[in-house]
Design goal:
The chain is of the alpha+beta class and 321 residues long. It has 2 domains: 203 residues, Endonuclease I-creI (Roll), CATH 3.10.28.10; 76 residues, no CATH class. It has 11 helices and 10 strands. Strand 7 and strand 8 form a beta hairpin. Helix 8 crosses helix 11. It starts with a helix and ends in a 7-residue tail after the last helix. Zinc ion (ZN) binds next to helix 2 and helix 5. The site of zinc ion (ZN) has 9 residues, from helix 2 and helix 5.
Amino acid sequence: MSFSSDVKKELSNVKPEKSCCALSELCGLYASMASLNLLGRGQVNVQFSSESLAVCRRAYTLLSQALHIAAQIHYVSSARFGGKRKCVLTLGPIQSPVLLCALGMMEKNENGSVSLKSTTPRLPLTRGCCMRAFLRGMLLGGGTMTNPEQGYHLEIAFRDEESRVMLAKCMQRLGLPIRISARREHSYLYLKQSDQIVTLLTALGAHTSVMHIEDLRVRRQVLGTVNRAMNCDSANLQKQMNASSQQLEAIRQLIREDRLSTLPPSLQQIAMARLNAPDATLEQLGQSLDPPLGKSGVNHRIRRLMSYFDDSHLSGGIPHD
Ligand SMILES: [Zn+2]
């Protein structure tokens, strides 16, 4: 199962915070996955469709809890959806007006009949709880999330200007950025940072999915730290090896030119120690001397040895102890 469907499954089971929130979530579901069909003689039906059975079940439950209407549930499989099976909920001409009036899309006339006044939901979202519920509905109906193991990307597709305005208002309330993009004929709002995705999913109640993302994020951070430490260690090691091979080369040359014996005894001693232990660190070299010498003492002697080597190849001078 994809991460997207895991998140949707989890969100489908979140209990609405308050009784007002069920209708707000239905509004998000309607805006992202429902269609309105005109049947003639003023009659309409409404269909919710999704590839996710969990999402359709959610819509079914909210319709019956908030509005006491029952939808018919069935599957269609169509070549248009690439042979995929889609779950469809249908509200008939009796039930549809109940939902459409609740969403502010239909109005009751004085004579008791209803008329359509908008093809998009007109629900004033003012409470924080209802804004979160609306976002949950939009994410269930039109959301997609990349598996956090592959990267961070969450998007919510929307179909009209009203949805864009409502989405923006809700995202702003959560302190999230409003980034909009379009692909072919679809527009969508997206988040690309893990902490923003975590903020959104936490607000919507997908705590298990959030834990999964956090867990991966921590693992990735630890791995990054270990890698950096290893790279740093190997860079230091390389530096040390380069220095050691320069020293060995200088010492061998001095021996070849029979000049090592002309050096002060302390420098001869350190040169021999280095020849015997090409891979040793400065501390290890110091420990091998008799009497032992500290790191800075070893460093000082090696520098003198090297500067003597450099100088002697320019002027032939001999250092004094
Ligand atoms: Zn509410």
